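Reviewers of the previous submission asked for a worked example of the structure-prediction workflow described in the proposal, so we include one complete record here. The input consisted solely of the amino acid sequence. No template or homolog information was supplied to the procedure at any stage.
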Amino acid sequence: MEILKNAGFDFSALFTETQRDSELVDKIVVQAGVPLFKVKRYLDKKVFDKHPYDGHIPISAVYAFVGVLYSVLYGYSNFIVANEYSSNFGNIKYKGINVNHQWSKSSEFEKLFQDYIRNFVVSGVNYFSLLRPFYEIRITKIFSKHKKYFPYFSSCNKNFLISGGNLGNGLWCGECAKCVFVFTLLSAFLKKNELLAIFKKNLFDDEALLPMFADILGLGNLKPFDCVGTFEESKAAFTLGAKKFKNSSVVKKLLPKVKISRKQTEELFRTNISLNIPSAFRLCGMESVLILGYGREGAVSKRYLKATLPELKIGVADKKISGNYLKKQRDFDAAIKTPGIPARNLEIPYTTATNIFFDLAERNGNKIIGVTGSKGKSTTASLIHSIVKESGKDVRLLGNIGQPMLEEWLCVVPSERIFVLELSSYQLENLDISPDIAVITNLFPEHMDYHGGADSYFLAKKNIIKYLDNDGIFVFDKKNKILSEWAEKTVGKSVDPAERNILNGVNVPLIGEHNLDNILLAWSVGRELGIDDETIKKAVEKFKPLPHRLEFVGDFKGIKFYDDAISTTPESTIKAIESLENISTIFLGGEDRGFDFSELEKALRNNGIKNIVLFPKSGNRILKSRKGFNIYQTKSMQKAVEFAFKYSEKGSVCLLSCASPSYSLWKNFEEKGDEFKKFVKKIGK
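From that input alone, the workflow returned the following structure tokens.
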């Protein structure tokens, strides 16, 4: 509760009680200062009869079901529990099977339950543990700073017996494994008098508890079947607390037997990756955050953290600063990962600027239109922005296309503002909130080196619709089989592109069939926002094509030059070829990502393209046969353009559309396109 309050979240407390009220819980919640809701749970009388199955039930699973039911009934989007990383570890192995008394508190249960609820019960309710990244010992360290709870809290199970505990006026029996474990952990962080005031006695002086202490320290037969932490954290706390209790009998007898290294102790205070936690909550309780990848977005993320969480220790790591930048992770609790770094390289809990943005927009009531696709997302996002702007609404275009998203939240954002976001697969890889309107232009394999295969790439793209609720809208290209299959299983409303005849009489400013598809997708989004067709038409006709996307550079010496540097896959280059007539020269090649170029070679021959410039490295294998082509291989854009002027026929087209990423010779496709235009204009004078 204190961590959530510190992070600025609004929440209520929920308590499931059985036949009797819990004064203990009431007092705790009063100290927290939050609303409390109680769910009464009635047990069948037969539970109290003697039967052969007497024993523990997975009570945390019962609470999980009750909490989700409550969230649905009363409109809460998150049901948050307080299960620690330590609960993942079992008590004993029996016939090769790990037996874990706390299994229904574990990460394994949490993930299974999340999937079950999302797939079979309800969308829009997240169940997770906020404390999952932390061992119990670190939670105790955090808790020890909140002294207002000391007179009221307890972890002794006797407080929660239906028949009532026999604790007198105290809150701790001082005899069970829970009391022994909590006393040991708190001894590491509290003053001696503070600890004794809580427990009313010194448990380290009670020799009758020696076997219990031995069990929690890993010196006995097995870890107790109680909700206690690992042997290592008990050893670490016992060693740290022993300095204050060196004359106590339990310390004298057991401390010489307890062995734990400084390195092991340090590991217990580190954080652990916990992907079950929605990204919006992953910085909660963290003391330090690393900005991992420090480009323009990283710099904005740092400014945002300084403005909103000034107590955080903030670090920066980037390959431009150090080749070993990834090793810096273990010095921090969490990271904000830049889109260019694959999630597989992360060793600590992390979130992204994209997820932080989505959470802020959701809490502020802003509508988000997210646009992705293998190609056409920049044009489509820009078209949607133009349409919404033409209607007079407050709208911003952000994301992969330009301004870092978090920069928007450095100022006050009105709730009526609409955000149009261009989202790459890198940004979508870890997305866990879907936009209100999700748009996918098309889908074919790309960025294989980053994602490790087409399936992973497609899954990243699918995240844009994964978390849609019943009010969500999915606009997609119905000609794509995969997208059509996704639409059938998507929660919310699936919307086809606007009908093609709507463009009759429209002065379309874009070249190519694929751009007509982009316009129709944007048109559908406009309609979903309640914008009339006449306004949409005006916006489309006013639209200026984006640079490097079949951009007409000019007519020089009778040759028409087009810059399509954005096309970095064979599929997009084929679309560019199909969009233009009378191409005599084309520039191909770049970084080799292992693409299949066989269909591209067919397109070159079918469209009668004779002159081909090939850049390394993929240029070496684009053509299986060079027969019938006039080939020029080079690393120089200037020489490539000179070749085009020499061999292109007057009235024909020279096209830069390389079917490969630009990084073999250029920083990005923009640099490649700008260089192309510079030499065309220089040589064409």
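The chain has a mean pLDDT of 93. We consider this example representative of the routine output the project will generate in years two and three.
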